[in-house]
From TrEMBL, chains A, B:
Top-level taxon in the UniProt lineage: Bacteria
Gene3D superfamilies named among the record's database cross-references: NAD(P)-binding Rossmann-like Domain, ornithine cyclodeaminase, domain 1
Species assigned in the record: Streptomyces colonosanans
Name this polypeptide is given: Ornithine cyclodeaminase
GO CC annotation: cytoplasm
Length: 352, 352
């Protein structure tokens, strides 16, 4: 029996491998390849249940592949979550991304999912902010102060040296305070302001990033200062009118956004109030959902906020996780990092 | 950061844990719970591509949960395959089944998939043969002599002491010969007959098991001896007329079979020539697809072959893998077997 080896990379190892990787360029490359059609994003698997505390728990399994350099990267992201996890002292969501050998289809690398998931999400925000944000800004408002917010803050400071102030709001003031303490340690040069209400936080700067677990829109267009860029990462924070009045709306994938009417932009698109830039009816008085990849590819001019609002509304694509994990896996293999397990095992240990 | 531990069980360890487990009773229990509605089988994820040899390669990810004892077992079966794998000296399909903590949804056990998959498939065949097969038989015909056939032969000899002869056929005579040699070593008391053509193998006994990779039906009803039980495991071997003339047809799940018209019984059902036992039109001159679980639960009487044919056509349910793996996982944990990895890792090793 030939061995069937899989390399397991825990979060600490993943972070070590990421040291030499620019996640923003990996994400931008994957978005471009996806826009060029060199990717596949099959329908995701989804299973939900209630745990013994009656809390919503779920498993999501997303297969995907994307061109990376001269070959395709194939994999699956398994990201499970339970609402009661934070009360147990663990992150709400957890799981792993698995990469497949393109020749044999065998799973060959298993990568802790949470860190890469937060990183690729923040990297997409950095990319869109760089390309579509105000040409000049020194402050960012962060709505929702959990794990992904911490990652955003870290990358904001790293990629935008001009940022001198972060405005924070969370429905739970303890989380805001915790992120503030974290930032005081890691970015002592940045001024951090905690806001007692979401409206004042939204109004405080011309770059607003939503990173909540909201399922009901609550931010009206009037709260935003003229010329604001909104990274609507958590997908259910801004009200429909924000999209209708926006100077531009950018998405990662038209179908993913439109086919999910439980999210605000999906419902607005299904109602016909925002149409895809690919549709023939485009431009006849309707707001357009534009593919961000077209801008990255240089095929469309970037629309930055002038007097109004520009909204980036990325649904989130598992191929971004696959792409980042593939870069991590290459480095781990070269450096001999991770735990390698032969899934066939030692036949001497089998009793029958 | 709290640890996030996952236990990895390779095939050798799985086999060791299985020593004290009766796979047939685990499978029967899962089929019963499924029939009682105490299960969930979400739509599977599927991604296909061609490898560099132009060969069909695919990933299939199947979430599922099923009642097991007093709790539910949750998990996902990832089973990938490439047509060129056997030429590389590895099994065509491979992957793993992952079990989730019902409380946190975290992946907690990862089990090599191939062995359990073959075992649960063979265990279902043993169960159906015991319940629906001829009351008296001493020979079995096996069509297709790969990995799953070897598992079937092993369980046949173990569960049916009366079996004195196995008839083998494979489109590749080398595989037939290899299985014959394997059986000569492991079951020296059983007579093994290699057949040069599939028809003579089908005709040789009143129990026929199809374990091929056929995608085109080729066995007409006339080849079967009167009073034959057919375990149509590979789903595309018997021609539509076999179903139309059968004394009874049994399936594991009506929807799975009917919703897959690429398989022969699915296409026959979509054409309306075989109807589900649950449908109101049942019994009006149409052949019926019956749920095997109803027989196991004692709610329907078993129909064994008399002068005609009885066909068992199990689509294959990932919850059977989840159920068997759950039993394996419990034993592995008690015995401290497997490789335990903390997916968070040691933060001291993270450079940033």
């Amino acid at each position: 029996m030939k061995p069937d080896r899989i390399r397991i990379l825990d979060r600490a190892t993943v972070m070590r491998c990421l040291a030499g990787i620019d996640p923003v360029s990996v994400v931008e490359s994957a978005v471009c390849e996806h826009t060029l059609g060199r990717s596949d994003l099959p329908a995701e698997g989804y299973m939900a249940w209630e745990n013994s505390a009656g809390a919503y728990s779920r498993a999501v399994a997303m297969l995907g592949c994307v061109q990376q350099g001269r070959s395709m990267a194939y994999g699956i992201k398994l990201i499970n979550a339970s609402v009661t996890n934070p009360a147990l002292g663990i992150e709400r969501a957890g799981g792993f991304t698995v990469l497949f050998d393109p020749e044999t289809a065998r799973p060959v690398t298993l990568v802790e999912a949470g860190h890469v998931s937060a990183l690729r999400t923040a990297a997409y925000t950095m990319s869109s902010l760089r390309t579509l944000g105000p040409t000049d800004f020194d402050a960012v408002s962060i709505i929702g102060c959990g794990t992904i917010a911490a990652m955003h803050a870290k990358l904001l400071v790293q990629y935008f040296r001009a940022v001198r102030e972060l405005h924070l709001y969370d429905i739970d003031p303890a989380r805001t305070a915790a992120l503030r303490r974290d930032l005081a340690t890691h970015c002592p040069d940045v001024k951090v302001t905690e806001h007692p209400d979401v409206e004042s936080c939204v109004k405080a700067s011309q770059v607003v990033v939503t990173l909540t677990v909201s399922s009901e829109p609550y931010i009206p267009p009037g709260w935003f200062a003229p010329g604001t860029f909104i990274a609507h990462v958590s997908l259910d924070d801004v009200m429909p009118a924000v999209f209708l009045e926006a100077e531009a709306i950018y998405v990662d994938d038209i179908d993913l956004v439109r086919d999910n009417p439980r999210r605000v932009l999906g419902s607005v698109m299904q109602a016909g109030d925002v149409v895809a830039d690919t549709e023939s009816s485009s431009g006849h008085g309707h707001a357009l959902a534009r593919r961000y990849g077209e801008v990255l590819l240089g095929r469309e001019e970037a629309i930055r906020p002038q007097d109004g609002l520009v909204v980036s509304n990325p649904f989130g694509m598992a191929i971004l996780d696959v792409a980042v994990c593939q870069e991590v896996a290459v480095r781990a293999e070269v450096a001999g990092l991770g735990t390698v397990v032969d899934l066939m095992g030692d036949p001497e240990r089998a009793d029958r």
